[in-house]
Design brief:
Number of helices: 12
Strand order of the largest sheet: 3-14-15-21-18-17-16
Oligomer: single chain
Helix content: 25-40%
Bound molecules: glycyl-adenosine-5'-phosphate
Distance between the termini: 35 Å
Number of strands: 28
Radius of gyration: 28 Å
Structural class: alpha+beta
Strand content: 25-35%
């Protein structure tokens, strides 16, 4: 298991500061002290977001025959979220027993005192298996056998065993220590096991609809959706009937979701308003597990394509008991952010739970009729659910480099460079006339800009020395800089053959090459998609 606690605060601070300085991401309502958990994307951030969403949509909808798009409303009927279990299930501060998964009301746990036994992990020598996770057990009776705490801890760590044949008692506990606890409420009174942090499940933002809606009219209540998935389930029959599609098929949606997170943190990572990119892929029950594995592979290759290093991505096969009760398989895809390894996307096999619930609550027939076998059944669903903002944060963290280009004996020279893949980069090419006081260079540069602008986001800059302009573009991740110089004008003696060519300077290698203006557009188009 990778080290979840490996963090680089210094690097994260630099990234957050660059995001503000260069206009990728700003705190929402900053001049009023900020709106906690909400973020605004500046001009460059908005481009990156658009690039990511366009790419995801192209790969998952437009380039596939079996997936259709949806753009559902954000305001959601309370009946939808009652059926899905969000209303009612999300209203108390709850914590879970890490051992039995029993869910307890945090505010109803009696305070307990005793000796807590803490462990940092467990291992099994013969199979070279180990798990690295903090866990504690409280013994709350006087003179209790301390081995009871160790037995409970072994049972806890045994949940993570990949080889279920290994008995819990064969595990070696790591990093044991003890502490005296007084009147604490974070242990399960039933078995002494550590509980998760209490979570307030009133996560949804509620609103009142209609001009005459008063606060006490329950019928006027609507919610800002906490996930995009529910409108897909609710519209599944309409999409299916209007498109005459057959299983397996998917419905994809990109859009805002809202959760009143108790503790928004780590820049945009845990926000109260965020965007999801979700697919609900409907299938026959017997295909569910296989398709879950196939989707996991597809999603990993997408992350590879957009430039997240394989070594920084981790797949967690969520063990029995930690998954939602209706899910037979769930993978979490996690990424090594500077603040630790954290979830980017979940790929979950949700069975027929969601459609089953909506059928039950709405009373509408949501079955699929198979023309060939004449069977009628509720399709199962595989759900790859990605966070758009989290992916952008991962792309920004991945792209951020500081290169030391200091020459021997020279002044320190650190180049900040955002190594975005060209498809993700906010600006694809910068157009730079060598000198701004030479009208012929400026005119030619503007011609080049006009040539490229209808096809991609370009940036024209004539201020400062060319070297400084290159560095500015490095800092925002522009993969190509195009310099218009005297050779472009055919004004360099002995280099007349370079007339109507430009210098292309590559961001990562800083190498330069010359290209004819007439070849520029196809050359760039080939490299930016
Ligand atoms: N429909 C399933 C679903 O919503 P989830 O694991 O709660 O599952 C899916 O959310 C993805 O949405 C997460 O993997 C994460 O990328 C993103 N996400 C969830 N909560 C978020 C938050 N508070 N801020 C930013 N992204 C979030």
């Amino acid at each position: 298991m990778a080290n979840k606690d490996q963090t680089d605060t210094d690097r994260m601070e630099k990234i957050v500061s660059l995001c503000k300085r260069k206009g990728f991401i700003f705190q929402s309502a900053e001049i009023y002290g900020g709106l906690n958990g909400c973020w605004d994307y500046g001009s460059l951030g908005a481009e990156v977001k658009r690039n990511l969403k366009d790419l995801w949509w192209r790969k998952n909808v437009q380039e596939r025959d079996d997936i259709l798009g949806l753009d559902g409303s954000i305001l959601t009927h309370q009946a939808v979220l009652t059926a899905s279990g969000h209303v009612g299930g999300f209203s108390d501060p709850m914590c879970d027993c890490l051992l039995t998964k029993a869910r307890l009301r945090a505010d109803q746990i009696e305070p307990q005192s005793g000796i807590a036994y803490h462990f940092t992990g467990a291992s099994h020598e013969e199979s070279e298996w180990s798990v690295d996770r903090d866990y504690s057990v409280l013994l709350n009776q006087p003179n209790q056998d301390e081995n009871k705490a160790r037995k409970t801890a072994r049972e806890f760590y045994a949940q993570f065993l990949t080889d279920k044949q290994i008995p819990a008692k064969k595990l070696t506990l790591l990093g044991e220590s003890t502490s005296e606890e007084k009147e604490v409420t974070h242990y399960n009174p039933e078995n002494g096991s550590l509980l998760t942090e209490p979570r307030d499940f009133e996560l949804m933002f509620k609103t009142q609809m209609g001009a005459s809606a008063d606060d006490h009219d329950p019928n006027a209540t609507a919610y800002l959706r906490p996930e995009t998935a529910q409108s897909i389930f609710v519209q599944y029959k309409n999409v299916m009937d209007s498109n005459r599609v057959k299983l397996p098929f998917g419905i994809a949606q990109i859009g805002k979701a809202f959760r009143n997170e108790i503790n928004p943190r780590n820049f945009t990572f845990r926000s109260r308003e965020f965007e999801q990119m979700e697919i609900e892929y409907f299938c026959r029950p017997e295909d569910g597990l296989r398709l879950t594995d196939e989707w996991l592979a597809k999603r990993l290759s997408f992350y590879d394509e957009i430039g997240l290093q394989k070594e920084k991505l981790h797949v967690l096969d969520i063990p029995d008991g930690e998954r939602a009760h209706y899910s037979q398989k769930t993978y979490d895809i996690e990424y090594d952010f500077p603040f630790g390894q954290q979830e980017l996307e979940g790929v979950a096999y949700r069975g027929d739970y969601d459609l089953g619930k909506h059928k039950e609550h709405s009373g509408k027939p949501l079955e699929y009729f198979d023309e060939q076998t004449k069977e009628r059944f509720i399709p199962h669903v595989v759900e790859p659910s990605a966070g758009c903002d989290r992916t952008i944060l991962a792309l920004i963290c991945e792209a951020f480099y500081e290169e030391d280009l200091t020459k021997e004996g020279g002044k320190q020279d650190i180049r900040t460079v955002m190594r975005f893949k060209p498809a993700i980069a906010p600006i694809k090419a910068a157009i730079l006339p060598l000198l701004k006081n030479k009208p012929e260079l400026v005119e030619k540069a503007r011609e080049v800009k006009n040539l490229l602008q209808p096809f991609m986001n370009v940036f024209y800059d004539e201020t400062a020395a060319i070297g400084r302009r290159y560095r500015r573009q490095d800092e925002v991740g522009t993969p190509f800089c195009i310099a218009i110089d005297f050779e472009t004008m055919g004004l360099e003696e002995g280099k007349e053959d370079l007339k109507d060519t430009v210098t292309i300077r590559h961001r990562d290698s800083m190498k330069q090459e010359r290209i004819a203006i007439s070849d520029l557009l196809p050359w760039l188009l080939e490299r930016i998609h």
